[in-house]
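re: ur question from earlier - yeah i can do the single chain one, its not a big deal. heres the input i used so u can compare w yours
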Amino acid sequence: MPLSPSQKQEVIKEFQTVDGDTGSPEVQIALLSKRIEKLTGHLKEHNHDVHSRRGLLSMIAKRRRLVNFLEKVDKIRASEIVKKVGLKN
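and the output i got, formated as tokens:
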């Protein structure tokens, strides 16, 4: 489930570290979280959609890897993004 360009721009504006930032781990984690929320809603209606479920699990794993990387680099930034996005530690 792709995000609309306007939704994507809102998320980027909220989580960017500097102006014009689209590739920092914070932005990537936030975008993945938004896509995961949207896909979770889809899977609640269509619980037999196995292909989308596989994509969801892949996105969750990628988000976890990004959070782990950010924890290695800067624990404070990692804890802030986890709180902002609403993830469990």
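The domain at 5-85 is CATH 1.10.287.10 (Helix Hairpins). not sure if urs matches, ping me
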